Amino acid sequence: MTDFNATKEMFHLPEGMIYLDGNSLGPLPKAAPAKMAEVMEKEWGDYLITGWNKAGWMARPTAIGNRIARLIGAEENHVMVGDTLSIKVYQAVAAAMSLQHAKGGAAAARKVILSDSGNFPSDLYMAEGLIKTLDRDGTLGLELRVVAPEEVADNLTDEVAVMMITEVDYRTGRKHDMAALTAKAHANGIVAVWDLAHSAGAVPVDLAGCQAGFAVGCTYKYLNGGPGAPAFIYVNPAHADVAEPALSGWLGHDAPFAFEQNYRAGPGVERMRVGTPPVLANAALAAALDVWDMTDMQDVRARSIELCELFIKEVEARCPMLELASPRDADQRGSQVSFRFHEGYAAMQAVIARGVIGDFRAPDIMRFGFTPLYVTPEEVVKAAEIIEDVMVNALWDTPEYKVRNRVT
Questions:
Q1: Which NCBIfam families does the annotation name (predicted)?
Q2: Residues annotated as catalytic (active site), given as ranges
Q3: Which residues pair with 193 in a beta bridge?
Q4: 151-168 pLDDT, tens digit each
Q5: Nearest to 203 by CA among 73, 13, 367, 85
Q6: 266, 254 contact by CB (below 8 A)
Q7: Residue 122, annotated as binding a ligand
Q8: Is 198 annotated in some ligand binding site?
Q9: The listed CATH number (3.40.50.150, 1.10.8.60, 3.40.640.10, 3.40.50.720) that belongs to domain 39-292
Q10: What residue ranges of the chain have pLDDT lower than 70?
Q11: pTM exceeding the 0.90 threshold for the entire prediction
Protein backbone atom coordinates (compact mmCIF):
# COMPACT_ATOMS: atom_id res chain seq x y z
CA MET A 1 0.00 0.00 0.00
CA THR A 2 1.21 3.48 -0.85
CA ASP A 3 1.84 5.67 2.20
CA PHE A 4 0.58 9.08 1.05
CA ASN A 5 1.61 10.73 4.31
CA ALA A 6 5.17 9.65 3.56
CA THR A 7 5.09 10.86 -0.04
CA LYS A 8 3.69 14.25 1.03
CA GLU A 9 6.72 14.72 3.28
CA MET A 10 8.97 14.34 0.24
CA PHE A 11 7.81 17.62 -1.33
CA HIS A 12 8.44 21.27 -0.58
CA LEU A 13 5.00 22.86 -0.23
CA PRO A 14 4.75 26.49 0.97
CA GLU A 15 3.03 26.95 4.32
CA GLY A 16 -0.64 27.85 3.97
CA MET A 17 -0.87 26.90 0.30
CA ILE A 18 -3.24 24.26 -1.09
CA TYR A 19 -1.65 23.20 -4.35
CA LEU A 20 -4.16 21.92 -6.90
CA ASP A 21 -2.12 22.61 -10.03
CA GLY A 22 0.15 19.60 -10.24
CA ASN A 23 -1.52 18.83 -13.56
CA SER A 24 0.33 21.88 -14.88
CA LEU A 25 3.55 21.88 -12.84
CA GLY A 26 4.39 19.52 -10.02
CA PRO A 27 5.98 20.86 -6.81
CA LEU A 28 9.64 20.61 -5.89
CA PRO A 29 10.82 17.27 -4.47
CA LYS A 30 12.85 18.12 -1.37
CA ALA A 31 15.71 15.93 -2.56
CA ALA A 32 16.01 17.65 -5.94
CA PRO A 33 18.19 20.64 -4.94
CA ALA A 34 20.79 18.42 -3.28
CA LYS A 35 20.71 16.01 -6.21
CA MET A 36 21.23 18.83 -8.68
CA ALA A 37 23.97 20.35 -6.49
CA GLU A 38 25.77 17.01 -6.45
CA VAL A 39 25.66 16.83 -10.23
CA MET A 40 26.77 20.45 -10.58
CA GLU A 41 29.52 20.45 -7.97
CA LYS A 42 30.92 16.92 -8.05
CA GLU A 43 30.10 15.68 -11.53
CA TRP A 44 30.19 18.85 -13.65
CA GLY A 45 32.54 20.70 -11.29
CA ASP A 46 35.10 17.96 -10.67
CA TYR A 47 34.71 15.74 -13.70
CA LEU A 48 34.04 18.40 -16.34
CA ILE A 49 33.72 16.70 -19.73
CA THR A 50 34.86 13.36 -18.34
CA GLY A 51 31.48 13.23 -16.58
CA TRP A 52 29.95 11.82 -19.76
CA ASN A 53 31.86 8.62 -18.99
CA LYS A 54 32.68 8.78 -15.27
CA ALA A 55 29.18 9.85 -14.18
CA GLY A 56 27.33 8.01 -16.94
CA TRP A 57 25.48 11.06 -18.24
CA MET A 58 24.94 9.53 -21.67
CA ALA A 59 23.14 6.49 -20.26
CA ARG A 60 20.71 8.43 -18.06
CA PRO A 61 18.00 9.06 -20.68
CA THR A 62 17.58 5.30 -21.05
CA ALA A 63 17.79 4.61 -17.32
CA ILE A 64 15.21 7.30 -16.53
CA GLY A 65 13.06 6.05 -19.39
CA ASN A 66 12.96 2.62 -17.76
CA ARG A 67 11.81 4.16 -14.48
CA ILE A 68 8.99 5.95 -16.29
CA ALA A 69 8.13 2.76 -18.18
CA ARG A 70 6.85 1.20 -14.95
CA LEU A 71 4.33 4.02 -14.55
CA ILE A 72 2.95 3.77 -18.09
CA GLY A 73 2.91 0.01 -18.61
CA ALA A 74 5.75 -0.01 -21.13
CA GLU A 75 8.32 -2.69 -21.88
CA GLU A 76 11.86 -2.22 -20.59
CA ASN A 77 14.22 -0.29 -22.89
CA HIS A 78 11.39 1.13 -24.99
CA VAL A 79 11.06 4.58 -23.39
CA MET A 80 13.56 7.37 -24.10
CA VAL A 81 13.79 10.69 -22.25
CA GLY A 82 14.87 13.97 -23.81
CA ASP A 83 13.90 17.11 -25.71
CA THR A 84 10.40 18.61 -25.40
CA LEU A 85 6.95 17.10 -25.73
CA SER A 86 6.27 18.92 -29.00
CA ILE A 87 9.43 17.44 -30.51
CA LYS A 88 8.43 13.97 -29.34
CA VAL A 89 4.95 14.41 -30.84
CA TYR A 90 6.54 15.34 -34.16
CA GLN A 91 8.87 12.34 -34.01
CA ALA A 92 6.10 9.89 -33.16
CA VAL A 93 3.62 11.06 -35.79
CA ALA A 94 6.30 11.30 -38.49
CA ALA A 95 7.54 7.80 -37.68
CA ALA A 96 3.99 6.45 -37.72
CA MET A 97 3.34 8.03 -41.12
CA SER A 98 6.61 6.59 -42.42
CA LEU A 99 5.63 3.09 -41.25
CA GLN A 100 2.47 3.29 -43.32
CA HIS A 101 4.37 4.50 -46.37
CA ALA A 102 6.90 1.68 -45.99
CA LYS A 103 4.13 -0.93 -46.16
CA GLY A 104 3.27 0.20 -49.66
CA GLY A 105 -0.02 -0.49 -51.43
CA ALA A 106 -3.22 0.62 -49.72
CA ALA A 107 -1.40 1.54 -46.51
CA ALA A 108 0.82 4.01 -48.36
CA ALA A 109 -2.29 5.59 -49.90
CA ARG A 110 -3.68 6.61 -46.50
CA LYS A 111 -3.57 10.40 -46.18
CA VAL A 112 -5.24 11.31 -42.87
CA ILE A 113 -3.86 12.03 -39.41
CA LEU A 114 -6.92 11.78 -37.16
CA SER A 115 -7.18 13.76 -33.93
CA ASP A 116 -9.89 15.36 -31.84
CA SER A 117 -10.92 18.84 -30.80
CA GLY A 118 -10.03 18.13 -27.18
CA ASN A 119 -6.39 17.59 -28.07
CA PHE A 120 -3.78 20.04 -26.84
CA PRO A 121 -3.25 22.68 -29.55
CA SER A 122 0.51 22.10 -29.72
CA ASP A 123 -0.07 18.51 -30.84
CA LEU A 124 -2.29 19.77 -33.64
CA TYR A 125 0.26 22.44 -34.58
CA MET A 126 3.02 19.81 -34.85
CA ALA A 127 0.84 17.64 -37.08
CA GLU A 128 0.04 20.67 -39.24
CA GLY A 129 3.74 21.48 -39.51
CA LEU A 130 4.61 17.90 -40.43
CA ILE A 131 1.99 17.90 -43.19
CA LYS A 132 3.35 21.20 -44.57
CA THR A 133 6.85 19.72 -44.62
CA LEU A 134 5.79 16.50 -46.35
CA ASP A 135 3.21 18.03 -48.70
CA ARG A 136 4.21 21.65 -49.23
CA ASP A 137 2.34 22.07 -52.50
CA GLY A 138 -0.65 19.95 -51.45
CA THR A 139 -0.25 17.42 -54.23
CA LEU A 140 -0.09 14.44 -51.84
CA GLY A 141 -3.42 15.32 -50.28
CA LEU A 142 -2.27 14.83 -46.70
CA GLU A 143 -4.84 15.96 -44.13
CA LEU A 144 -5.15 16.60 -40.41
CA ARG A 145 -8.74 15.64 -39.63
CA VAL A 146 -10.06 16.92 -36.28
CA VAL A 147 -13.35 15.52 -34.97
CA ALA A 148 -15.25 15.76 -31.68
CA PRO A 149 -13.81 13.50 -28.96
CA GLU A 150 -16.87 11.26 -28.94
CA GLU A 151 -16.60 10.82 -32.73
CA VAL A 152 -13.07 9.43 -32.89
CA ALA A 153 -14.08 5.77 -33.00
CA ASP A 154 -16.53 6.30 -35.86
CA ASN A 155 -13.84 8.06 -37.90
CA LEU A 156 -11.24 5.27 -37.76
CA THR A 157 -11.65 4.44 -41.43
CA ASP A 158 -9.36 3.13 -44.16
CA GLU A 159 -8.45 6.74 -45.06
CA VAL A 160 -6.63 7.18 -41.75
CA ALA A 161 -2.91 6.50 -41.48
CA VAL A 162 -2.34 7.68 -37.90
CA MET A 163 -4.58 8.24 -34.90
CA MET A 164 -3.02 10.95 -32.71
CA ILE A 165 -4.94 11.31 -29.44
CA THR A 166 -4.26 12.76 -25.99
CA GLU A 167 -5.74 10.27 -23.53
CA VAL A 168 -6.91 12.88 -21.00
CA ASP A 169 -8.35 16.19 -22.23
CA TYR A 170 -6.30 19.07 -20.83
CA ARG A 171 -9.36 21.31 -20.35
CA THR A 172 -12.02 19.03 -18.95
CA GLY A 173 -10.19 15.88 -17.88
CA ARG A 174 -12.34 13.74 -20.20
CA LYS A 175 -10.59 10.36 -20.58
CA HIS A 176 -10.54 8.33 -23.77
CA ASP A 177 -10.72 4.53 -23.67
CA MET A 178 -7.17 3.82 -24.82
CA ALA A 179 -7.57 0.07 -25.11
CA ALA A 180 -10.79 0.24 -27.15
CA LEU A 181 -9.61 2.96 -29.53
CA THR A 182 -6.22 1.32 -30.06
CA ALA A 183 -7.88 -2.02 -30.79
CA LYS A 184 -10.19 -0.43 -33.35
CA ALA A 185 -7.28 1.47 -34.89
CA HIS A 186 -5.33 -1.78 -35.27
CA ALA A 187 -8.32 -3.54 -36.78
CA ASN A 188 -8.43 -0.82 -39.42
CA GLY A 189 -4.70 -0.77 -40.17
CA ILE A 190 -4.08 2.51 -38.32
CA VAL A 191 -1.00 3.32 -36.22
CA ALA A 192 -1.98 4.62 -32.77
CA VAL A 193 -0.03 7.51 -31.21
CA TRP A 194 -0.98 8.51 -27.66
CA ASP A 195 -0.08 11.68 -25.76
CA LEU A 196 0.16 10.90 -22.05
CA ALA A 197 0.78 14.46 -20.82
CA HIS A 198 -2.17 14.26 -18.41
CA SER A 199 -1.97 10.49 -17.88
CA ALA A 200 1.56 9.66 -16.75
CA GLY A 201 1.48 9.70 -12.96
CA ALA A 202 -2.24 10.42 -12.94
CA VAL A 203 -3.95 7.25 -14.16
CA PRO A 204 -2.78 3.67 -14.75
CA VAL A 205 -1.60 3.19 -18.34
CA ASP A 206 -0.94 -0.12 -20.09
CA LEU A 207 0.90 0.65 -23.32
CA ALA A 208 2.20 -2.89 -23.72
CA GLY A 209 -1.17 -4.44 -22.97
CA CYS A 210 -3.07 -2.38 -25.52
CA GLN A 211 -0.19 -2.48 -28.03
CA ALA A 212 -0.02 1.24 -28.70
CA GLY A 213 2.31 2.06 -31.59
CA PHE A 214 3.87 5.14 -30.03
CA ALA A 215 3.32 7.27 -26.94
CA VAL A 216 4.75 10.54 -25.73
CA GLY A 217 4.47 12.60 -22.59
CA CYS A 218 6.01 15.26 -20.37
CA THR A 219 7.55 14.91 -16.92
CA TYR A 220 6.93 18.32 -15.35
CA LYS A 221 3.26 17.75 -14.51
CA TYR A 222 2.23 14.79 -12.34
CA LEU A 223 5.75 13.32 -12.43
CA ASN A 224 7.16 16.47 -10.73
CA GLY A 225 10.35 16.73 -12.78
CA GLY A 226 10.44 20.55 -12.65
CA PRO A 227 9.79 23.38 -15.14
CA GLY A 228 11.20 22.47 -18.53
CA ALA A 229 11.83 18.85 -17.52
CA PRO A 230 12.50 16.56 -20.48
CA ALA A 231 9.78 14.72 -22.35
CA PHE A 232 9.63 11.00 -23.16
CA ILE A 233 8.75 8.84 -26.12
CA TYR A 234 7.68 5.19 -26.22
CA VAL A 235 8.08 2.99 -29.29
CA ASN A 236 6.36 -0.38 -29.53
CA PRO A 237 8.89 -3.24 -29.81
CA ALA A 238 7.43 -4.17 -33.20
CA HIS A 239 8.43 -0.74 -34.55
CA ALA A 240 11.54 0.02 -32.53
CA ASP A 241 14.12 -1.13 -35.10
CA VAL A 242 12.27 0.03 -38.20
CA ALA A 243 10.77 3.40 -37.20
CA GLU A 244 12.41 6.17 -39.19
CA PRO A 245 13.41 9.21 -37.10
CA ALA A 246 12.24 12.38 -38.84
CA LEU A 247 14.70 14.32 -36.67
CA SER A 248 17.91 12.41 -37.28
CA GLY A 249 19.97 13.92 -34.51
CA TRP A 250 23.61 13.13 -33.82
CA LEU A 251 22.83 11.18 -30.66
CA GLY A 252 20.26 9.03 -32.45
CA HIS A 253 23.02 7.78 -34.75
CA ASP A 254 24.14 4.18 -34.42
CA ALA A 255 27.72 5.33 -33.71
CA PRO A 256 27.72 9.03 -32.72
CA PHE A 257 31.43 9.15 -32.00
CA ALA A 258 32.39 7.58 -35.29
CA PHE A 259 31.45 10.98 -36.76
CA GLU A 260 30.24 9.48 -40.00
CA GLN A 261 29.04 11.90 -42.63
CA ASN A 262 25.75 10.08 -43.24
CA TYR A 263 23.07 9.11 -40.76
CA ARG A 264 22.50 5.52 -39.61
CA ALA A 265 19.72 5.08 -37.08
CA GLY A 266 20.67 3.62 -33.72
CA PRO A 267 19.12 0.47 -32.28
CA GLY A 268 15.59 0.46 -30.94
CA VAL A 269 14.30 3.50 -29.07
CA GLU A 270 17.84 4.93 -28.97
CA ARG A 271 17.22 6.24 -32.49
CA MET A 272 14.64 8.62 -31.01
CA ARG A 273 17.37 10.62 -29.29
CA VAL A 274 17.89 14.03 -30.87
CA GLY A 275 19.92 16.51 -28.84
CA THR A 276 22.35 16.37 -25.94
CA PRO A 277 20.79 14.96 -22.76
CA PRO A 278 19.82 17.71 -20.26
CA VAL A 279 22.04 16.47 -17.44
CA LEU A 280 20.89 18.92 -14.75
CA ALA A 281 17.21 18.47 -15.59
CA ASN A 282 17.66 14.71 -15.55
CA ALA A 283 19.03 14.97 -12.02
CA ALA A 284 15.89 16.74 -10.79
CA LEU A 285 13.67 14.26 -12.60
CA ALA A 286 15.55 11.33 -11.05
CA ALA A 287 14.90 12.79 -7.59
CA ALA A 288 11.18 13.04 -8.41
CA LEU A 289 11.10 9.44 -9.59
CA ASP A 290 12.56 8.37 -6.24
CA VAL A 291 9.22 9.44 -4.76
CA TRP A 292 7.32 7.55 -7.46
CA ASP A 293 9.29 4.44 -6.52
CA MET A 294 7.33 4.54 -3.24
CA THR A 295 3.97 4.25 -5.01
CA ASP A 296 1.62 1.85 -6.71
CA MET A 297 -0.40 3.35 -9.58
CA GLN A 298 -3.57 1.53 -8.58
CA ASP A 299 -3.34 3.13 -5.12
CA VAL A 300 -2.71 6.51 -6.72
CA ARG A 301 -5.76 6.15 -8.96
CA ALA A 302 -8.04 5.06 -6.11
CA ARG A 303 -7.01 8.02 -3.95
CA SER A 304 -7.28 10.39 -6.93
CA ILE A 305 -10.90 9.34 -7.51
CA GLU A 306 -11.62 9.81 -3.81
CA LEU A 307 -10.18 13.34 -3.84
CA CYS A 308 -11.92 14.36 -7.07
CA GLU A 309 -15.30 13.00 -5.95
CA LEU A 310 -14.99 14.85 -2.64
CA PHE A 311 -14.08 18.09 -4.42
CA ILE A 312 -17.03 17.86 -6.82
CA LYS A 313 -19.43 17.15 -3.96
CA GLU A 314 -18.14 20.04 -1.83
CA VAL A 315 -17.95 22.63 -4.60
CA GLU A 316 -21.36 21.83 -6.09
CA ALA A 317 -22.98 22.04 -2.66
CA ARG A 318 -21.38 25.42 -1.98
CA CYS A 319 -21.17 27.10 -5.41
CA PRO A 320 -24.26 26.56 -7.60
CA MET A 321 -23.00 29.20 -10.03
CA LEU A 322 -20.18 26.87 -11.11
CA GLU A 323 -20.96 24.29 -13.80
CA LEU A 324 -19.09 20.99 -13.79
CA ALA A 325 -17.16 20.70 -17.06
CA SER A 326 -15.50 17.37 -16.28
CA PRO A 327 -17.23 14.01 -16.73
CA ARG A 328 -19.21 13.06 -13.63
CA ASP A 329 -18.30 9.39 -14.06
CA ALA A 330 -14.86 8.90 -12.50
CA ASP A 331 -14.00 6.15 -14.99
CA GLN A 332 -14.29 8.72 -17.79
CA ARG A 333 -12.18 11.34 -16.02
CA GLY A 334 -8.46 11.81 -15.39
CA SER A 335 -7.05 13.29 -12.19
CA GLN A 336 -8.46 16.80 -12.57
CA VAL A 337 -11.78 18.56 -12.07
CA SER A 338 -12.86 21.55 -14.14
CA PHE A 339 -15.72 23.98 -13.64
CA ARG A 340 -17.12 26.55 -16.05
CA PHE A 341 -17.79 30.14 -15.02
CA HIS A 342 -18.29 33.15 -17.28
CA GLU A 343 -15.64 35.09 -15.32
CA GLY A 344 -13.47 32.06 -14.76
CA TYR A 345 -10.16 33.87 -15.15
CA ALA A 346 -10.94 36.52 -12.56
CA ALA A 347 -12.45 33.97 -10.19
CA MET A 348 -9.34 31.80 -10.40
CA GLN A 349 -7.07 34.77 -9.68
CA ALA A 350 -9.12 35.55 -6.58
CA VAL A 351 -8.91 31.90 -5.46
CA ILE A 352 -5.14 31.87 -6.04
CA ALA A 353 -4.76 35.08 -4.03
CA ARG A 354 -6.30 33.22 -1.09
CA GLY A 355 -3.84 30.33 -1.25
CA VAL A 356 -5.64 27.74 -3.40
CA ILE A 357 -3.60 27.25 -6.56
CA GLY A 358 -5.42 26.11 -9.68
CA ASP A 359 -5.35 27.54 -13.19
CA PHE A 360 -7.54 28.82 -16.01
CA ARG A 361 -8.03 27.54 -19.54
CA ALA A 362 -9.84 29.58 -22.15
CA PRO A 363 -12.58 30.34 -22.66
CA ASP A 364 -14.17 29.75 -19.24
CA ILE A 365 -12.53 26.79 -17.47
CA MET A 366 -11.40 26.85 -13.84
CA ARG A 367 -9.13 23.81 -13.60
CA PHE A 368 -7.96 21.92 -10.50
CA GLY A 369 -5.55 18.98 -10.47
CA PHE A 370 -5.39 16.30 -7.78
CA THR A 371 -2.13 14.55 -7.03
CA PRO A 372 -2.51 12.12 -4.12
CA LEU A 373 1.23 12.18 -3.46
CA TYR A 374 0.76 15.50 -1.64
CA VAL A 375 -2.95 16.51 -1.63
CA THR A 376 -5.09 15.40 1.33
CA PRO A 377 -8.86 15.13 1.80
CA GLU A 378 -8.67 17.85 4.47
CA GLU A 379 -7.07 20.22 1.97
CA VAL A 380 -9.80 19.45 -0.54
CA VAL A 381 -12.52 20.51 1.91
CA LYS A 382 -10.58 23.63 2.89
CA ALA A 383 -10.12 24.54 -0.77
CA ALA A 384 -13.87 24.22 -1.36
CA GLU A 385 -14.53 26.56 1.57
CA ILE A 386 -12.21 29.19 0.09
CA ILE A 387 -13.76 28.84 -3.36
CA GLU A 388 -17.19 29.26 -1.79
CA ASP A 389 -16.12 32.50 -0.14
CA VAL A 390 -14.77 33.84 -3.45
CA MET A 391 -17.83 32.87 -5.45
CA VAL A 392 -20.69 33.60 -3.05
CA ASN A 393 -19.28 36.97 -2.09
CA ALA A 394 -18.16 37.83 -5.66
CA LEU A 395 -14.64 38.55 -4.41
CA TRP A 396 -13.42 38.02 -7.97
CA ASP A 397 -15.26 41.10 -9.23
CA THR A 398 -12.41 43.61 -8.97
CA PRO A 399 -10.23 45.10 -11.74
CA GLU A 400 -7.00 43.57 -10.43
CA TYR A 401 -8.25 40.02 -11.02
CA LYS A 402 -9.37 40.73 -14.58
CA VAL A 403 -5.96 41.74 -15.94
CA ARG A 404 -4.69 38.76 -17.93
CA ASN A 405 -1.21 37.50 -17.17
CA ARG A 406 0.86 35.99 -19.95
CA VAL A 407 0.52 32.55 -18.35
CA THR A 408 -3.00 31.69 -17.22
A1: kynureninase
A2: 120, 195, 220-221, 367
A3: 164, 214
A4: 999 999 999 999 999 999
A5: 73
A6: yes
A7: yes
A8: yes
A9: 3.40.640.10
A10: none
A11: yes
